[in-house]
């Protein structure tokens, strides 16, 4: 389980409110007594099963007094105590008594459940295996909380009480329940932001060129149905609406406030909004973290969190919800309504995307420019769009990830319902690779992003153009049922280009069935080609186009139809467009068109592209996404004979000896990998030439000699590897020559029996600072970095995903028998990938790991060189701790 972060944090409640949870302090005594006073006698009786408020007050004194044996957390809502939860370990330290008290006003918001989640994580980290709650039978609310939290539970009745025992160990069911509650809370918190009943624009100036004036104009011109309040102390009216000097003067509540004041005034405005009960704050003002004023941004966030307000921005364009007629932005033009949910970290990119989307017929359901992402981020918006009936496709322009692993879990769930398309900027690799393992050197930030998105089923695009090309196909057409494409057109050249592009994209252009070809011959002119592509010739009419499209759509060997039309031949562009759209309607198959030189819709539902490569690219992306959605969810794979406890013992012993971490020596690294089923070649460590010769006789000839030393990363580069040593004298001579060449950097050597011929592969893992553990597989040996043939995944990894990693490699034919060579044992290689993934998940202290090469033969696989570096476990949020970042 990931190490928990016990420091204070903010959490979303079921109704979208915000609670602040932290460890109980001795200074909280007065707050706890206030909590008891805010609880009815009935609530106190249900918590303590006896006595009244006097008993409760006495317990609060003990909790904040010296010698309190338990662990307790307190929750604050809008600065007031809302709940306290505790566990008190018994003498064994393996069990603990559980207790929760909530203020009456805090019942029904999910606070008790989230506090129990946090207690369970902290308890498990301390070695507490069971939390035991003794509950009165009539306390149905608490019993429901204990039943629904997702922890394995046992009940028994004793002495008039229900004893509930909760196992604290993390389980997939617990994570599923936590994610479901997180989704409900996130959706609730953004509902008022995107569908407010009333909006205040603070800083709504009278000058048309001002940002605040533009926001107000967009709200009014967009037809927002609720009250819109300009807030401007220097104006009596703005754009014909009465203006108010501050929020306190408003005649009614404001659910949403858009702040367009200078940055220096924003904090005071946020405090006024908090006092007024605003639920959502959109700060379009710049001058915060992006300008070096991170402290002001942190204070702005603190004000919003304490008041239960969600914050969009600062330094953003605003938000739009076309279904609610809400344009709370200073976009230069109102987005056309449609089915695309759009988020952008960059305002400039957002303007370009929205403008281009309208040009190609793709409208927006809702839009958020998140700017500095102080609070609301892509994770929150995915949860909002997941159940939004107005959104069919989601597009994100990202410059950074706040919590990548949480993004991956959310995107995997949301993407199963609605396609997610991401353009992520910043593809450059960073850092010095000279002193790192092959895996760590290869695991660039961009490789990590790619692995995260691929594991989550997210469609990654390189450009806004590609993003919109793919989005409009997914928004208007059903997903392709397969990779088989029929091409229909009226010009051989563009059709040939289309067929070539399909082949490059991994799409098939199959021969049409005899029945379909017969239908086409009867409907088309004699000069037409009725294979695939279907060529109507330049004289083909709109009617012939409709006949051809309908015929190939009816063919069972066709999954998608791509029409390639070159105007102005035949009966003209408009009639042909209508013919294509009419033929496609109701077919249930994917239809798209390339109308040379024209980018836009072909009818209401068929997307059109100016060039064949655009259309094929979009279709390839749609096919891959459909295949991802069709795959059954893979359960976690158990690693045979895995011994996580032994592995943990090895890591703890090494870090106890060297707390800062270090590279493991070869025998220790081999023992660690053996705990996860990875077989390492028998290896003997030696310190001189004579010992090397003896070791060679022990492991068997021919032998391999490898130099060792703390500074030797790539041994081959300095002549530190000798193979094919046939007798003791060759081994002695090789050791002496190696020592003379390398010098003091060589402190010894490893002797192995030379493995038989096979395919040299690499399997590795790295603990990425931001993205967590990554696993790599690829072509190994001395050319690993030169050829850069590798695939990455985020663990845990199942059998099917391990097989897909190997299939993605350019060297895949070598594994399956190339030019007469026998196929090698890919099942054992896949098992090593799975085992390394499990190791990286179980042991966050493993900073980097290389098995290079792994020699894979028809009989099995063996790692002949291993490197493992340990470091203190990075501080990462536990997935079992719900928290706002």
Task: Describe the model.
This is GNAT family N-acetyltransferase. GO terms for molecular function: acetate-CoA ligase (ADP-forming) activity; acyltransferase activity, transferring groups other than amino-acyl groups; ATP binding. It comes from Sphaerisporangium rufum. The chain has 885 residues and is of the alpha/beta class. The protein folds into five domains: 162 residues, Aminopeptidase (3-Layer(aba) Sandwich); 236 residues, 3-Layer(aba) Sandwich (Rossmann fold), CATH 3.40.50.720; 150 residues, Rossmann fold (3-Layer(aba) Sandwich); 169 residues, D-amino Acid Aminotransferase, Chain A, domain 1 (2-Layer Sandwich); 73 residues, Dna Ligase, domain 1, CATH 3.30.1490. 37% of the residues lie in helices and 23% in strands. The chain has 28 helices and 39 strands. The chain has an eight-stranded mixed β-sheet, with helices on both faces. Helix 8 packs parallel to helix 9 and helix 21 packs antiparallel against helix 22. The longest helix is centred in the N-terminal third of the chain and has 23 residues. It is globular, with a radius of gyration of 32 Å. It starts with 8 loop residues before the first strand and ends in a 15-residue tail after the last strand. 50% of the residues are buried.
Task: Please outline what is shown here.
This protein is α/β, with parallel strands linked by helices and 885 residues long.
